[in-house]
Amino acid sequence: MSNRPNRRTPASVRVAEAQAQSRSRTLWIVVGVAVVVVLALVIAIALTRNEEESAEGGGASPSGGTIVPSGDVSEGSVAVTGADLPPLTSGATSDPAVGETIPTVAGESFDGSSISIGPDGQPKVVLILAHWCPHCQAEVPRIQAWLDANGMPDDVELVAIATGTTSSRPNFPPGEWLREEGWSVPTLVDDAAGTAGAAFGLSSFPFFVVTDGSGQVVYRISGELDEAQWEALIEAARTGTAPGGGESGESSPAS
Amino acid sequence: MSVDTASLFFALLALACLTAVLAVLGGFAVWLIGGRPAALASLRVDLGRVAIPLAWIVATVATLGSLYFSEIADFVPCTLCWYQRICMYPLVIVLGVAALRRDRDVRFYAGPLAAVGALVATYHSWIQAYPPDGGTSFCTLDAPCTERYVWEFGFVSLPLMALSGFLFVITMMVLARPAHLRRTIEIESEREPFIERELVEEKA
Questions:
Q1: Is residue A53 within 8 angstroms of chain B, CB to CB?
Q2: Which among B145, B140, B175 has a CA at the least distance from the CA of B24?
Q3: Class at the top of the CATH hierarchy for domain A57-251
């Protein structure tokens, strides 16, 4: 440093200082990056450490049903009695399955208990879901919220099928997903070949089949439904007639 | 490390990248509006010096993350994922070589690559956040691009992570442009003729 106060510090010294300052700032950038990475890792580990315990099933749901029982059976044996419904083809003007009687599909639920879907005198809405399908992931909480608000209908039986199950696809296993959603609809687990889905003519997810009391198909539809469309499905099961003209075009069976 | 932990880790890194991009944009706005403060000018110069190594780090982490999700977590990459990989993976080599050679011209090669990746990632992020309502035809087994393998904080998906990485690389490539420090300082030096002019001359 200069001991002559009325003269400025020599340029070379000031340049050296500026360069040193710049180097230290470069160092700080590197340190900052390292801190961000370590911080992200610590937060990630801390936040996910306690998430190992999975949701418990079996409790009562606000809808009056039982939250999908514990157990993570992802594929069950399925036995179909009767003829499969024809697939719901997009673009067709009428659904060939309407008026046909659904087959009896016997299988098991996530905890291995047996469950059966068939013409048993009760009007039904059958929901067919895949754990990886974002439309199903959006539909399930919507339906569950409706059930929690309105309760399980006592004159229409709701039953679900978890199919398309693949461990390498997201949101696996389906049992855990549905438990986390507080899903209270009794659910049958399809086999690896998708036998139960095929029995209802599954074409894409989510898939809904409405039957009347005699087990005859009233209506089928796939794609996300809003609350009003969902209520229309229950009404269709109750009355045995397909939802009428008041429905929005994008979810008509022909779409 | 569980897949949950890894997802959250990479999601946080993606948010850090996005924050950095926004910070640079914010700095640029201050630069334009706030009368070109000298402090920002020298910060700009320093960032320019480390821009290529930083971009290389982000491209490398993004590539390792992508490989982690496909090879260890066994998530099957969809078509759109592949297009983003095609843009991201070469950046590791290109930016790595450029960082070693201190070749700032790499921005002309890495920039467009990252820009293409960012476009695909934007579209992919969009359809994961808002799955298009294809009626009966969308959620079929052969159209898995909308599958949300990762969905952190209610909005961070895998393509959003890729998008963050691409945006960070693009930002760094812009900063890698040799700083017009000289011009900057000349403007400054009209007001303060002493300090920085010498610094520039020393460097030049």
A1: no
A2: B175
A3: alpha beta
